[in-house]
Amino acid sequence: MSKITPCIWYDGAAEEAANFYVTLLPDSRVDRVVKSPIDNPSGPAGQVLVVEFTLAGQAFMGLNGGPIFPQTEAVSFMILTEDQAETDRLWNAIVGNGGQESACGWCKDRWGVSWQITPRRLMEFYSDPDPARTRAAFQAMMTMKKIEIAALEAAADAAG
Q1: How many domains does the chain contain in total?
Q2: Dihedral of alpha carbons 25, 21, 121, 145, sign
């Protein structure tokens, strides 16, 4: 385990969530499932308490802590995608597995964890030397749920 590991709080679904997440990206796996040795505030002895998993080489921990702390958008996981196919695949996997769409490339999974499915091309527009192209791409993004790279390109091209 790395020195700093993000811990995601779940209400009993840490193992289910981790098993889903590791299907999304290469270099991902469930590393360890730890069951509680005693009864605790979040459940009885023998229940899954902690799940250690790796997503795209980054260590995470899922904690079945109970209903006290629900997920919020204050923390999200950004995945930089290489093209529209990868953007679509990840978006559809998360939203299609009981998640929900939000705005500007954000979505939530069925456990309430927020994700930003962000094409690298969108990030490149932020450093475009032509401010009109940057503004146009940003304005186009603001109208989207899932980011559509071709629409960003068209908006930028029309402006510059």
Answers
A1: 2
A2: positive
User: 31 lies in which domain range?
Assistant: 1-67
- Closest by CA position to 115, among listed 95, 97, 135: 95
- Are the C-beta atoms of residues 122 and 141 closer than 8 Å to each other? yes
For residues 94 and 157, membership in a common domain is answered with: yes
Phi, psi angles (nearest 5°) of residue 40:
-145, 175
Helical H segments across the chain, by residue range: 14-21, 84-96, 120-125, 131-142, 149-159
**One domain, residues 86 and 110:** yes
CATH of the domain at 119: 3.10.180.10
pLDDT of 1 = 63
Tell me whether strands 106-108 and 7-10 are parallel, antiparallel or unpaired.
unpaired
- The per-residue pLDDT for range 148-160, each reduced to its tens digit, is 999 999 999 999 8
DSSP 47: S
Looking at 67, 94, 119, the residue that finishes a domain is 67
Q: What pTM was computed for the model?
A: 0.93
